[in-house]
Amino acid sequence: MPQTDTLAALIESPEVQADLQIVRRGVDELLVESEFARKLARSRSTGVPLRIKLGLDPTAPDIHLGHTVVLNKMRQLQDLGHTVIFLIGDFTTTIGDPSGRNSTRPPLTREQIEENARTYYAQASMVLDSTRTEIRYNSEWCDPLGARGLIQLASRYTVARMMEREDFTKRYKGGTPISIHEFLYPLLQGNDSVALRADLELGGTDQKFNLLVGRELQKEYGQEPQCILTMPLLEGTDGVEKMSKSKGNYIGISEAPESMFGKLMSISDTLMWKYFTLLSFRSEAEIAALRAETEGGRNPRDAKVLLAQEIVDRFHGQGQGEAALAAFEARFRDGAIPDDIPEVNLAGAPLGILKVLREAGLAASGTEAQRNIEQGGVRVDGTRVEDKSLQLPEGSYVIQVGKRKFARVTLRG
């Protein structure tokens, strides 16, 4: 163990400060930063890498760009030489994480979990370096825990502390049922940190309580407590709700290049900069310069194209972003999308295309909307609409009528 004065000097060294700057980028919170700086300094002094943990429950088979916000941070830590642990919560998924929910989350069957888990790590490896990633399943230690072990674990945390969690408090005060098994989720997630002897755990801002439970349980078991790093939740293509497959506002990392490119081009000019910070591998200086150029008069579309190309190239291979751009522009060759198309927000999704056209001001009446479709003059994200009964789910769409009428329509439930 390095001496205290040696560690203090190392913390202020250019190397550790540079590491901290990388870690801080885009972060919502780093708790406790002084402790993490000490861990970084000790790691540099001893040559022993830190153990960085990220747990994901395979509740769906696909990973979207919202998930990669945390994965990108893991990759940065991996590139700094630390051990990253990609933990698949195959056991905790059978409980269902109640974070941010106002009702009990239905647990998945073992078969559903195994099916989803099959693709999880393969997709995560599109961001992480698989040769330097430790993959674990929390059933390794949760299954052998048994009833006796679970009771002993539960004795380490109080109901009062559990009720400090905002969603539990709201549900309790509102008379909404809370099942006992939901209390087990943060306990078992915290116990994962004990089992893995984590130095740092990452998660979205909605995971803060669960991450802190891990820190407290490590203290209970005589371990040095982990630090926690929370990343902002990324809004989806609607620009309102966090990216989620269930909300229909997601961009999957395994989506076809043209689909991925088109969805990225549909985000607002304002949200684009958050996407740059959380998703782009460009330096902060490069992003700041690009933003200054845009604020100085450069077309924001140029910046959005760069972002979309970078992300498509990352997940589909070099040159695919350029090909997707060419395909995107070809779709609108007969009527290029103006730079300043109106943005319309509508509630009540899914909505019928005829109602969307009326309420977005693209047709004066249902009859006119129907006639435009029959004449082949209506396109949604470049695809001609032929079905007058088409229902559009939640999401953001570029809708075109004829050659000159456009609107970016965001539908919410």
Automatic annotation (TrEMBL):
Keyword Cytoplasm: yes
A GO MF term: tyrosine-tRNA ligase activity
Binding of ATP, residues: 245
Record EC number: 6.1.1.1
Top-level division of the source organism's lineage: Bacteria
Major subcellular site: cytoplasm
Short sequence motif 'HIGH' region: positions: 58-67
Catalytic activity: tRNA(Tyr) + L-tyrosine + ATP = L-tyrosyl-tRNA(Tyr) + AMP + diphosphate + H(+)
GO cellular component: cytosol
PROSITE patterns assigned: AA_TRNA_LIGASE_I, S4
Domain RNA-binding S4 residue range list: 351-412
Family annotation (InterPro entries): aa-tRNA-synth_I_CS, aa-tRNA-synth_Ic, Rossmann-like_a/b/a_fold, S4_RNA-bd, S4_RNA-bd_sf, Tyr-tRNA-ligase, Tyr-tRNA-ligase_bac-type, Tyr-tRNA-ligase_bac_2
Keyword presence, Aminoacyl-tRNA synthetase: yes
GO biological process: tyrosyl-tRNA aminoacylation
Motif window: 'KMSKS' region: 242-246
Localization (cell): Cytoplasm
Enzyme class, UniProt record, top EC level: ligase
Keyword terms of this UniProt record: Aminoacyl-tRNA synthetase, ATP-binding, Cytoplasm, Ligase, Nucleotide-binding, Protein biosynthesis, RNA-binding
Family per similarity comment: Belongs to the class-I aminoacyl-tRNA synthetase family. TyrS type 2 subfamily.
PANTHER family to which the protein is assigned, alphabetical: TYROSINE--TRNA LIGASE, TYROSYL-TRNA SYNTHETASE
Record's subunit section: Homodimer.
Role noted for this protein: Catalyzes the attachment of tyrosine to tRNA(Tyr) in a two-step reaction: tyrosine is first activated by ATP to form Tyr-AMP and then transferred to the acceptor end of tRNA(Tyr).
Protein name as it appears in the record: Tyrosine--tRNA ligase
